[in-house]
Amino acid sequence: MTAAMYDLMDYDEVLEKFDPVMGMEVHVELNTNTKMFSTSGTNFNAEPNSNVDPVSLGLPGALPVVNHQGVEGAIRIGLALNCSIAESSRFARKNYFYPDQPKNYQISQYDEPIAYDGYLDVVLEDGTEWRVEIERAHMEEDTGKLTHLGGADGRIHGATASLVDCNRAGIPLIEIVTKPIEGAGARAPEVAKAYVSALRDLVAALGVSDARMDQGSMRVDSNLSLRPVGTTEFGTRTETKNINSLKSVEQAVRFEMQRQAQVITDGGEIVQETRHYQETDGSTSKGRPKETAEDYRYFNDPDLPPVHVSREWVEEIRQTLPEMPWIRRARIQKEWGLKDEEMRDLVNAGALDLIIATAEQGAKPADARSWWVSYLTGKANEQGVELAALDITPAQVARVIVLVGEGKLTNKLARQAVDGVLNGEGDVDEVVKARGLEVVRDDGAIEKAVDDALAANPDIVEKYKAGNTKVTGAIVGAVMKATQGKADPGQVNKLIAQKLK
User: Fold this and answer.
1) Which architecture, in CATH terms, is 443-500?
2) Which of 155-169, 229-243, 253-267 has the lowest mean pLDDT?
3) Residue 46 phi/psi, 5° resolution?
4) Residues whose CB falls within 8 Å of the CB of residue 265, separated by 6 or more in sequence, listed in order
5) Which residue intervals make up region (Disordered) (predicted)?
């Protein structure tokens, strides 16, 4: 079903009648070299079913061993989220049958998570600060990946067959679960988006994950229920699974608010279920009935001993935490002299960290800002992706800026170089060489182009001699056209001035 096929209540009417309650569950894949309980690799681009071993395939007699780096990553995330770190935590078996879980259970943590009772303060678009309380952050292993064939957009609905890839099975995951988020009202979708955005920035800053939502290394499940205004009892919740962009997080919450409100008002019943987000129109569709904790039959994994964490180790890790994103932003704002609104615009556009990273690669902050918030934002909009998902790195943008500063590329040629990188034609220097983009510095060739342009435009020459010095722009344009934009504009202007005098 598409959004148009659902009866949706007007958003303002929803808020008059109901109070939304949210809960966010975010799964973060850690960037360890091996899996959570085995020595198998974790290469994202590996051939299907090549990064597997007896443990991740659930073969009889294969015994798991805890990844030390995975535990450290969990502690780093817990500390950054202001959580308490448990001195002892346990792994449990979460039992369910699904084709992408070879052994029919997932190793996770249930009643003894490694991190608990934390919070993350997030900033909304108008500068309002909102505290999201964290229930827990626990360790677990990822499942395999299903590729559905025959359905729309690779989803299970309408699929005629599904392929199983177990490469992802066993990759370390940290699941971060919030406490119920109440009182957001009309701003509930915005709060959800701001929280996921802040969490993504935090995880990336910690260096424990690349937090690429588009590649599945950070996945969001959004829980939502409605209760009549003035009441306190929670309504029945739905869980929208595997949302993979900030925009989608916001749309999924808003859609569920409108859909549930209409169902309740029409006398229907909200079913506790999972739902699938539809990228095409921002709707959600029915998944499967949602299990309760009892349905998973959790019990302590007999193959894994408790994880003991010393206070000394926790403090050692705490000392290695990087500057938190919100602290860095305050420092950058002061150093760059940005106004509050300018800083908020950069953050909301997802551009700030990219600009900072580009400046750290040798570009001037002003130049980095200009490229990311203008040309590259336009390219992201054309592709319908977030800025960070563009196939270009801050280092590559910095290289383009350096080449412009050295006079080896004009701004026009630089944009062509960036287009080449975005098209997958190679690194910046490879694109410049392959496309022949470097600025022409042959004095003879440029002088001839200037002479030809002056000869072809005698009226402009007369106007210049009459005192109108601003008309030379047409001559410059003619020279740039003749040289396919490869002439050095400074050199062209200098030659024109010399000849006209």
Assistant:
1) Orthogonal Bundle (1.10)
2) 155-169
3) -65, 155
4) 9, 17
5) 277-301
